[in-house]
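Reviewer has doubts. Consider these tokens.
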Amino acid sequence: MSTRDRNARAEQRTMTAALVWAVAYAGFGLACVLSRTSLSHLGGDGEGLEWAVMAVGVLVALTAGAVVRYGMRPALRVLLLSACALTGVMAFSLLMDVITLMLGQGVDSPASTANKALAAVGAVLLAATARSDRLPAVPAVPTGTAVPKPSAAPRSVQLTAWAGTLAFLPYTAMKTYWASGGTFAGVTGEEMLAVSERNGASGIFLTLESWGLDPTALLAVLGVFLLWGLVRPWGQVFPRWTPFLRGRRVPRSLPLAPALLGAATLAPYGVVGIGYLALVTAGAVTMGRGDFPSEGDALLVGWIGITAFAVYGIALVVAARSYWLRTRSTA
């Protein structure tokens, strides 16, 4: 089979997947409209998001159909990329819902979480579809030569990983100090535990806190582990201390899926958050003190948390791109 035929088949598969997703997403939106199910993360009365979901699904279905009939025209590519951006926005904060479920808590709105998950899948599919006609003309990969040997990321990427790691140190120290009963920013560990309980924290969350282990700090450690797995050779092959997977190569999508999910949530959240905190620091806007004694205490904690999310999120973007490039199939 020629390279052109292989690329044509790959383009057709991508387009079919996007079309199936579009029909399913439009159907999901229609079901929410008919059942009057709100897609707001807080539930309650609908705010029009259900109609937007249905509209995006219909738009993508019509666009995909037009691409099949007329080919990938510039205007159709713009529509696909616009829909990709919309679904990316709709998928925002999916990571927060995943973390909530991991900690044994229920999400505020199951329908909203389902929408974010579907939107995240759609964003990936639409991005791939928009560039499906630009697949590189490379020869077929012979059987048994799946991917290159494990390799480390360039030095610049590893320095970015160090920045993402160091950015989390103040955050994990702060959360661990609270969990161990210490007082920081005018709030004691006991008061912080009471706040978590009042906000509906799960039994797992509260138990770990009572043991002096903050769950979010533990997740930060896992996030750093993921980050270094993307830039070091051992991230492409499970370490020797994993008996049930010893010697097996890591599926390419296994680290990339959480990396892309984390990057898509934390990077924009952190960058926007830093802009907001900068305005607060400059006195341009005010910020509520929340559960802290003063606005200054709340601002201090905000800077520690948001800086960690922003730097780590950007580092995750850089590391994921490097991992993608280093694990591409070669002939």
